[in-house]
Structure formats: structure tokens, C-alpha cells
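Just curious. Protein, please.
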Amino acid sequence: MTVVSSQQSERRAPRRMQDLATLPVFFRLSGRKAVVAGGSEAAAWKAELLAAAGAEVHVFAQHLDPVFAALIDEGDRYVHHAHPLDDLSLEDASIAIIDAETEEEARDFSETCRRAGVPVNVIDKPAFCDFQFGSIVNRSPAVIAISTDGAAPILGQAIRRRIETVLPHSLADWAALAGRIRGRITENLKPGPQRRAFWERFVDRAFGSAPSECSIDSLIDEAGSIAVGNAESRGRVTLVGAGPGDPELLTLKVVRALQAADVILFDDLVSDEVLELARREARRMLVGKRGGRESCRQEDINDLMVALAKSGKNVVRLKGGDPMIFGRAGEEIARLDSEGVPVEVVPGITAASAMAAALGVSLTHRYHAQSVRLVTGHSRHGGLPPEIDWSSLADPSTTTVFYMGRRVMPEIAAKLCSRGLSGDTPVVVAQAIGRPNARSWRLTLKDLSSASHLPGRDEPVLIGVGRVFASRADCHDLTGAMPMTSWNAPSHCNLFPRSLSEDRAECKI
């Protein structure tokens, strides 16, 4: 006899499935009898769900709410019985629902249904329910239900709204199309790699544009090519803007691109919260470039994108901010075009826009600025680009935002002042915009030359120069809680209070 100690027991592998508050089940009701007791508006909503699922809904109520009466008049799946539920009402029923006014009525109805072997739901009284209705995202035949086991229905509704924004409505058309061709695909393709290859390509299409009249023929042709081994493994690259760090600032298209990726090549400035939105199976590779650190060469990144795409991978090149603003997207697009690799660009919110929003400052306030300039403080040769037209940047009606300019603050101040811009021109230095450790300082142009030793030397910095940064009477910091007085009196900001994981796997090129 083998005795297992408590210590050995604790070392056992965790269960593959954690405990569930309820079992998520999709119940087929087409052509079946469903019973609804009560004529309230709440009961009408449940009855409409049952009818939408194809049930024949028998309603037992002497009086109907006007909403319920109109629903029955307009629908052909309802049978109204103008009397209370009786002993025969549950005969042949597959499901039963009641809007009970009292606890006693709820208990009696629940016990009656259970004796008859009929699953029961009592609206807003979970203690008497065999099942609950979750919040529904309807892309039928793709249907998503969210349950909080009755503990927090409002939370379930909030989760539903989040999912609604991510899933395109055309997904319903693709799901219906899948049902139409499934038999032919099963017949023509062998189980295993062939079918998996087909359905993976199908899914890539499903999260794009809506299907057209030619989609079925195109899919059948693709299945035929896979069956005879002639299908080329075609990958693609999507250049995606991850914004300044806060995942709440991502566009829906960015989230969809992350969810469809096989491989994600991400920059060092991309936050962990953004990466958490990616498909779990996607391989993540850090290819970031940061000043003063060991970095991947751009040529190596280009080679890696081409190699992965040509091996059939859906590659997302994930960049902080917007890929088309100081993101070397032009070089990457040119290389991919020369190799015949399909490439798409999904924009993101650039750091200057995020800074303006966080500060509550319009970069083009019509009383102060007639143009905006975005200037890099780190050219391909290092330092400020020699081609900058400093005279145009010194125009007092221009707002200028310098990216990656921490090391060249003295040079920026000297160049602008030498071209006639007043030393009293307002300046904002913003650090780690869109991150938990975001902070900012207010100063003037003449102070900028001595501000290069600000704390947080490893954090990305923006330098905003122009009259717009004094357009608010108190020019508050990023929290809006206290004025920014000078560069040597930093005000810490917790605009987005989330912890960042440091568990990142760097790639070896």
C-alpha cells in the first residue's frame, strides 16, 4: 500500500479545468415548446430570446404588458394562454421561465418545474434558477454568452460591450458561410494538417472585410489547391501602431490585428498591457531599439519579417505610437515591397497627440498656433538632423514637438533662441506618456538648456515648444491635480495605475 503524504499531494499537477460557477451550455430549442409565465416587460424580453432561438413560446398570463402584447401580435412563434399556469402547462416543455412577484410564487413554480423535469429560470431570483441568461453577443451562428452567475449582471453587460466592439458584424456572414461549405471541405480535405491549414486561412479572412459573392468559389479553389499540395504558404506583414502605452487608446483594428497574428515583432516601448491583447498562441519577439542600449539592427528586422512572411506566417510589426511617425515604416515597407510580401499599415495614436490629450492642451489652439511640427531629436546619424529649418520652427505661431530629444535639449534651446524665438516661450517636457510612471515639467525655452539631467533617463521624452502650452491659466500636470512649476520640481503622475511585468523574451537575430 502506497501512502501519499500531504507534501506530495501539494506537488501534484494542477487541474486542467478550474472550478466553474455554472456550466456554459448552448441549448438547441428550434421547434420545441418553451413556457413563459407572466406578462411583464421583463418576461417579454425572455420570450423574445426563446423565439429568436426557434422555440414555440407558450405564454401564460391573464394580462400582458403593452410591449409583450405587441410582441405576440407581430410574431408567429407565440401562443398566448389568457389564464395562469396550470398542471398541464408544462407538458412536453423543454424550458420554463417566470417573472414571479413574490418569493412564495417563485418557490412554488420552481418546485413544480423540477418535479416535471423541466429546467427553470425565475427572473431576478437566482436562488430558484436551474440556469441563468447571460449577456449575449450575437453574430449568429456564432453566439457568445457571458455569465457572472448572477453576482454582477452589470459587469456581464460591460464585458459584452467590450466584445461587441472587437468582433466585426460581418463575422455572422462568415460563420454562416462556414456552415454552407463545411461538408465539401470535409469531403475534399484529409483530417489533420490539410483541414487545419484551410480553416486557419478561413479565419484570417473572417476578421477582415465581409464575404463577397465570389468568396465561396475562392475558398473551394483554395481547398482544392491544399488537397493536391499546390497551395503556396503565403504570409503577410502588418505594421501596427501600439500607441503611447495605454491599451485603452488602441483602435479596434489594432486589437483585431493582434488577435490574428502568428508572430509579433515588438519594440521596447510597447507596453505589456498591449501585448496581453494578442492571440495567446502568437510568438512574441522583442526587436526594440533604444538609445544607449544593445539593439537589433533595422536590416536584421527587415530580414526577419521577410523570412517569417515567406514561411507563411502572419507577422505583426508592433511599434510604439504610430508606425508612420518616426517608426522607420518607410524603410520596412520598401523592403517588403521589393520581396513581394503583402504589407498593411494600421495606425496608432502618436505620442504628441497623447501628450496633448493628457495635458488638456490643443496643439493648434487658433489663438496661439497655426501649424504643428513633429521633429525627431535623433536622426539616422545620431543627434538633431542637419536639414532642420530652424527659422521656420522659431515662428512663434508654430507648435513644435520634439521626439527622442532628451540628449539635445541644450542644442534645441540654443538653435531656437538664435533664430529669434523668445527665451520666455513656454515649454513642456513630458516623460513616459500613457504609462503608470508618466510625469511632466513646465519650464521656459531659456531653462531647457539646463534640463537635460531630468530624472528617469531611460524613459521616452517629448519636448513641446510653443505658446499653446500656456493656453490654460494653470497648465496642470498629467493628473490635472497640481500646477507644474519648474523642471526641478517634478510632479509624479499615476494617470494609468497599472503594474508592468518585466517578463519579456528578447529575440536573437
Observations:
- Residues 171-188 form the longest helix (18 residues).
